[in-house]
Amino acid sequence: DAGVTQSPTHLIKTRGQQVTLRCSPKSGHDTVSWYQQALGQGPQFIFQYYEEEERQRGNFPDRFSGHQFPNYSSELNVNALLLGDSALYLCASSPRGQLANEKLFFGSGTQLSVL
Amino acid sequence: DAKTTQPTSMDCAEGRAANLPCNHSTISGNEYVYWYRQIHSQGPQYIIHGLKNNETNEMASLIITEDRKSSTLILPHATLRDTAVYYCIVRVLSGNTPLVFGKGTRLSVIA
Lengths: 115, 111
What we know:
Oligomer: heterodimer
Strand order of the largest sheet of chain B: 1-9-8-3-4
Low-confidence stretches of chain A: none
Number of strands of chain A: 11
Radius of gyration of chain A: 13 Å
Order of helices and strands of chain B: EEEEEEEEE
Number of helices of chain B: 0
Helix content of chain A: under 10%
Distance between the termini of chain B: 35 Å
Largest interface: A-B, 31 and 19 residues
Radius of gyration of chain B: 13 Å
Distance between the termini of chain A: 37 Å
Order of helices and strands of chain A: EEEEEEEEEEE
Helix content of chain B: under 10%
Largest sheet of chain B: 5 strands, mixed
Shape of chain A: globular
Largest sheet of chain A: 7 strands, mixed
Number of helices of chain A: 0
Mean pLDDT of chain A: 94
Structural class of chain B: mainly beta
Mean pLDDT of chain B: 94
């Protein structure tokens, strides 16, 4: 049973460019959340998707957007990249329901470097 | 903002118990205490969670004080593979509530 998979593992972009990161949730999970982790900090919640809609959002600008597909996979898009967007981007999945979502399963992340 | 306070770093000798403290003095009655850890170059990994009773699983034990204002994660026999950043999080268990991470405790297990 594959866990949460993310691609690519590493990415280098320049300021002003746009980037798309991808995530496939763990089998049986329909909810996907994205987190940003700057160096030396804990992960920060960006947003969450289920039923192909954004359901919750953290304190991130509109440059950060996402999408969820019918197979529950998800994309994170960041426009007009800034140097400060350099970070590890983590995807987490869970099933819905109060008891079912007791724990989140995280992927290994995409390391984005903005030059 | 994170509702927990943890020491920045701790050391533990291999084979000994690692006791990681966490303060959550403003915890609400419907909030659970969660622990995750993040090994270098990996995503966070769930360890354990509890509401008010002590909990134990194959990875660790969680001891929550009676007033629920603090807790301790115990790794009974630490190994080098337990070297990681450990995050204590309080979370309402409903509505797919996001995790709010602090900076965690960096545990170094020393041979």
